[in-house]
Design brief:
This protein is mainly alpha-helical. The protein has 5 helices and 3 strands. The relative contact order is 0.12.
């Protein structure tokens, strides 16, 4: 709810929550990538406005890294900074990435890009193959 209320997509808390605002309706009519980019834009605005534990530059860097990742391969968590790991956790909650659950007392060592990630996969033949 933290991402949709400030964006004006649903009424503010305490208002009639059984309706979608006109702005929210326009949001729903966008394609999935338009919706995703709008959510990411709102997320980055919230990071800058509300938190000292996050860093917008770190979030953007991770977003670009995630966009360059392919669906399928595992990517190591070790090179990520602490702020990037926090952002990755948020991105996991948004369905943009997947971090396997720790097994026993061993923490996860890798993450995966989700197919619904920030940019669509481009087929091997390039964009013209779409």
């Amino acid at each position: 709810a933290g991402l949709v209320h400030p964006a004006g997509n649903v009424p503010a808390e305490g208002e009639d929550t059984a309706r979608v605002t006109p702005r929210g309706f326009r949001f729903l009519l966008q394609d999935v990538y338009g919706q995703l980019w709008r959510l990411l834009e709102q997320y980055l605005q919230d990071v800058v406005r509300t938190s000292t534990a996050y860093d917008e530059a770190e979030a953007l860097q991770l977003l670009f890294q995630l966009g360059a990742c392919r669906v399928g391969p595992a990517y190591p968590l070790a090179p990520l900074t602490t702020p990037q790991k926090r952002v990755l956790e948020d991105f996991t909650n948004l369905g943009l990435a997947f971090v396997p659950a720790p097994s026993g007392n061993k923490p996860a060592k890798s993450f995966f890009r989700d197919a619904a990630g920030p940019v669509p996969d481009v087929p091997v033949g390039g964009p013209s193959a779409l």
